[in-house]
């Protein structure tokens, strides 16, 4: 039985990237992996067969009925729903207990019971009845290992917990075709194994999967593969060029410090939940650390103290760049010494920001560009855009780029000022294996050229760690285990 079919289809992004002459069909019993290099149009393909992007040419046939009810595209982030996107307003929100209380819970999301942000009188905006029976909700939540999260606020979830929640939301709808865009991205080893088991089990129930997935994470249920060709100019060229020119020179003088981080008995609690428990950690200047641990182990919370995004910093005893936190320094003086990228930053960065402004904002550590650059700063941004081969897309908004290209622009933002401390939290999400390897080479080049470069690198894939890593801190349930 035919479920979906593309006939002589042409797909086009707003930035004019085009895939032409696609002929493809999904039959009952098939499960497809959509593969190809970053920027080749994998996410665009999913958007097209979900009916979210109109075809520029050709036909999309769906004999199974309405795309809206029969085909479900698992959201990549909270922007799929304006009510939820409004309640999760800024990436530091998960670390602020007061504003976090305004966010919906996982149960609210799954039951489609979310009031608009800023509702003063909840009684004036009655909620609809729960969308699903309690038994079905419990079954799906248990399948996705989020039963214990149902009463947690969305803003308190880790990256991996968020992804499992969004997948559960789609499974609840009992779709005929389920579209997944890099479902294993951001998940720890155990969570990936559990998700493999879940996908393989659901595939046996008659649901057809079409998923963008990396070679290392292809589920056993996959029966067919569609490999999209690289466009004439891809991130492979970008990264190859990026590792050859001399490094961009910092606009800031090297800060003199002995320890980038020195933490003593750090504890962070939210209500009754202890997220970090008695952490002691010293990062000396020039050390390169891997920060490892499963989803929910406290890695992002620990980094939020370092990047001055967590107000509980003032209740703890630690020093950044040899200065005790809370002794009068501004958060901007701290951020000035740090280059930072993370899944949360990517999630909340304004999508209409043009690439030029994304990269330039790294000079000021803002979520966009809000001041005029002087000639030296303009030259620095131009140099960085050329080095990372982002020049041709400098005037494009982030929303017009592929997920991998968006992440590359944010990496340019983190690297532009050659900060003494680089904090890279899962920096290669959205990049394929080839580009991930070449990014590793770029980071190793930075560390070789600047022996005093301090680095903290987070990943769930040990093979992705740069060769320059010298130390490892491993967390589990908020405690140091290694």
- Residue runs with pLDDT of under 50 for 5 or more positions: 87-93, 234-253
Let me know the average pLDDT. 85
Beta-strand percent range: 15-25%
Let me know the largest β-sheet.
Answer: 6 strands, mixed
Structural class: alpha/beta
Helix content: 25-40%
Radius of gyration, whole Å: 23 Å
Give the number of DSSP strands: 18
Number of helices, where a helix is a run of at least 4 consecutive DSSP H or I residues: 16
| Overall body shape | globular
Strand order of the largest sheet: 14-15-16-11-17-18
What is the end-to-end distance?
Answer: 53 Å
Question: What features would you describe in this structure?
Answer:
By secondary structure, this protein is an alpha/beta fold. 29% of the residues lie in helices and 22% in strands. The protein has 16 helices and 18 strands. The chain has helices at 42-49, 67-70, 82-87, 97-100, 106-110, 134-143, 159-171, 189-203, 235-242, 299-306, 331-335, 343-348, 355-360, 375-387, 403-415, 433-449, and strands spanning 2-12, 18-27, 32-35, 57-61, 71-73, 177-181, 208-212, 224-227, 259-270, 273-284, 288-292, 317-320, 323-324, 338-341, 421-425, 454-458, 471-476, 479-480. Strands 14-15-16-11-17-18 form a 6-stranded mixed beta sheet, with helices on both faces. Strand 15, helix 16 (433-449) and strand 16 (454-458) form a beta-alpha-beta unit. Helix 9 (235-242) packs parallel to helix 16 (433-449). It is globular, with a radius of gyration of 23 Å.
